[in-house]
Specification:
Number of domains: 2
CATH topology of the largest domain: Transferase(Phosphotransferase), domain 1
CATH superfamily of the largest domain: Transferase(Phosphotransferase) domain 1
Strand order of the largest sheet: 1-2-3-4-6-5
CATH class of the largest domain: Mainly Alpha
Oligomer: single chain
Strand content: 15-25%
Length: 304
Amino acid sequence: MADSVYLNVGQSIQSLTNVYYKNIKLLGVGGNAATFLCSATSGQYMGNLFAVKIFRKRSREDRRESFLKEVEFLQTCNFPSIMRVYDRGLFCDNPFVVAEYCPKTLTDVIRENSSTLVDKFTYTLGLLSALNYLSNLDPQIVHRDIKPANIFINGSSCILGDFGLMKVLDGNIELDREVFKESTGVGMPYYYRTPDLVAYAKQQSALTVKSDIFQLGLVITELFTGRNPSKRLENGDDIYSSVEINPFRIEVEPKFDSRIYGQILTMLKVNPDERESVSNLLSYWQRLFGDIITSLSQDGSKIF
C-alpha cells in the first residue's frame, strides 16, 4: 500500500462540511502526513488560507488511529495557544484536517534572531499557558513532542501544534509504548529527549506532565540563547542514554538574566519530582514579565 499523498497546484479537496479547499503549495511532509497551504473557495471561510494536513501512512492502521485521535482532540480544544482546527474530511480514503495557517515557526524566529525580549516572554507565557491547560484536563494530556518546529508564530503570540505523539494519561500504557517507540523511528524526539521519555521508553517509570515541562525548558533555553542545551548524541551513543544538559548563560537583560536563568533551571531538573509545577511556573514568569514591562516603561523603551 503506497504511503504517499499528492495534490496538484490548483487541485481542490472537499471536506465533510462540503467546503472546498484549493491547494496553493506543499508546506512539508512528515512521518505521518503531508501538509498543504490551501485557500477556502466556498463556505463561511471562503477566501481564507489554511494548513491542510493529509494523512499519508496508509500501511499503518495504528498511525491512522493516532492521527484521528489528534484531530478529534484538537477539535475539542478552544484555547488561544493551541492549534485551532476548523474542518476535516477524506481525500482518497486518507483523513485530513484543516487547521489555522501560520507562516512561521519558532525555528524560523530562533534562526533569524529576530525576537525582542518582550517577544521571548510572550512566547514563553503562551506555551506555559498551553501546558497548564493540558495538565488541567481530565484525563491530562502529555504532548511529548515540544520543539521549535512544532510551535507556530502568529504576530507576538505562539501556538503549540502537532499533537501526533500526544499521550492521554488514562492508564493505557503498554499499547502506547509500542506506538511511541515506532512513531519517530527511535522512539522520541531526537534532539529534545527528556529523562522521563527515556525512562518511559525503557519501561522504568510512568509518564507525567512533568516531561513536557523539561521539554519546554529546552525550547525556552534555545529561544533565549539560540542553542539547544541538550548534549548532542555522538556516533554510537544510545538514544536511551542519560539526558545531559550543557552549561549555558542567559544574557538578554542584565537586571533580569539571573531570574530568567533560575526559572529555566527549575524546569530542567533531571528528577521530575524536583521540577516546579506548570501553574507555579506560569505565575512566576507572569510576574517577571510584569517587572520587565515596568522597567522598559520607566526607561522609555519600546515594548511592542
